[in-house]
Specification:
This protein has 752 residues and is α/β, with parallel strands linked by helices. The chain has 24 helices and 14 strands. The protein is flat and about 165 Å long.
Length: 752
Amino acid sequence: MNGDELVHLNSGPITPPPPRNGSHAIIDLDQVDAFGQLRATWDILLKHQWLILVTAFVLTLLVAVYSYKMKPIYRATARVDVEAEEPLLQSLNDLFRTEQADDSFLATQVSILQSDNLAWETIQQLGLATFPNSGQTSPADGQVLGIPPAKKNAAVAAFKSNLKVERPKDTRMALVSFESTDPRQAAAVVNALVKNYVERNFKTKYDATRQATGWMEQRLDELKLKVEKSEEAMVAYERQNNIANIGDKQTAEEARFEDMSKELSQAQTDRLSKESLYKMVASNDAQVGFIQSNSLLPSLEAKEIDLKEKFSEAVAHFGPTYPTALSLQDQIKDLQALIVRERKRVVDNLHNDYLASVEREKYLATAVAQQKAQVDRVNQLLIQHNLLKREFESNQQLYDNLLQHLKDANVSAGLRATNIRIIDEAAIPSFPVRPNRLHNIEFALAAGLILGIALAFAREALDNSIKNAQEIEKLTNIPTLSIVPLNHSSVLGRSGLFHSKRKNGVNGDEGYAVELAVLKKPGAAISEAFRTLRTSILLSTAERPPQVLLVTSAQPGEGKTATTLNLAVTLAQKGSRVLMIDSDLRRPGLAKALKLQNQNGLAEILTGACEFDETRLQKGMGLDSLFLLPAGPYPPNPAELLCSMKMENLIKQLRGRFDHLVLDSPPVLPITDATILSSLVDGVIMVVECEATTRAALSRACRVIEHSGGRILGTVLNKVDVRRDGYYGYRYYHGYYSYKYKAYYKEEDRSS
């Protein structure tokens, strides 16, 4: 492969070589590039840098102008200590008693300081409200007379908008501040407001004390009558029911009932025990000896066992008829009869005990029931008595407490005490609190940058255009054959405040058109990108390189003509006979770009005005192996001409005369010409303009080509700003390859 066919590593993916050993490794760039997201964010910021900077500048400028035009605002502050409420004062020592104030009480006091009445009182006192047509001002107290409610509310609202009352955390203090353009007025307002608040607080407490005293005096008379009536009712009830000593009577009846209940429980337990013993011996009298250990049965049974042993020995030695054996046998019979009588006696005793316990249980149960009835009767009497007693005691207690409170209120009304103390009066401020020009400008700059960045990301999120080759491949599953960089002179249009339509046209700095980039500037990165496109196309098919190529795009203005010209030049530089066919019969551009005549072209051949052999192919750009078949005059029916048999036969005829045919066609989506031509060529090259072609347009165009039978070899990502779109290799390309091309062309000029 020649040097001019080297594929630039960062110029775009091409068809990879066959995998070795039957394996194919696919590398995900998102996994390899750990900082891809960070780099993408930086690219977005760099792309919209002018939007961010202009937003920050405008916002900072507006805030700076506002800050310097704003009048200075002064703030005066007074400190007030708010202690807990002390409703009762019984002595002078209580004036110095302090209690912890809760948060709700402190919040209430802060609300009082911000109340409308207190604000209006201060406004009247200082004469802050001026109403030319609404009355006169009293010279004695400065109060404004005849103020309409609407104007009064407006004055109070304006006053409260400059008033601020706050409570520092974990303190009982309130900070009262007022802002004004006049520092003396700010201090005077705060001091007057605080003094009015203290006076109002004292007056409110004094009035409340006098009102409570009057209510308690009236209430005392009512309670006195209730106490007398409840005492009379209790005494009458005691006389009626002969209740003399309630405490002893109640204790005796309940104690007797408790003792009898215990005896009944013991009797029931004893009855159950004797019942179980009786039933046990009644079913098996042989167990009597084990139950009654103090009876004669154990000794009789032991003696019986001893006689039986002796009888057994006598029978064994002398026989059963021996006198001794007969005597022992008679003794055993007598002893067994005695044991039977003893067992019967014991069973009868257990049965009698059981019957006695049953009778005792019945008797105790009857006595307990009678005692319970007696206790219930007494309790019924005591319930009503206790109600009467509690009513009397509660009325007596209420009367005593209210009498004591009345005495305390009389003492409290005579003492002047308040829980509000002024710690620091407001001083005249020396420096304004607003505007803080430096702080405002710094904040506006930071907010402007944040807003600009937010707008940049919002604009990027709303932009659905294609931005890189990986996005094309993920969307269409079609490889990107080459990435064509954007001329530096038009980069500003992409990263500026407004997104202008970019044109890969004449570069004003270097004096060449993009359509002639490969010839005019062979050492530039854009020329190498088209050589990469040529190599990618030649290697795109395994059997043989595609001979007939169609260059198209989804929408107009994406660089089809420039791509067609530069691709044809690179193929001709390789030594192949190349024919460029301008198949865009509606808006032909190849002849115009080469500054050649647009006659004897494709339209005349398809309409039958002439044959191909009668046309004179035009050579372009000084290459003997590069030819151009222009579009010719505009025909009335371009689509019908392109889908005719003449067009198909013309392509077949030209295949035998040229190594490569490169067709420049109209865009796919607006018209159907490219769709018709896609079925006549070996491969279609889809040109995609970076940040201009939308995802939907590209996807739709690829589907249209594929459904019509066309074969898309790949895409060309055009007009890519390599300085910020992540293709960093381009910035080093010019320094490496341009030296080789400059030396080559200098040697060529020297030889000519």
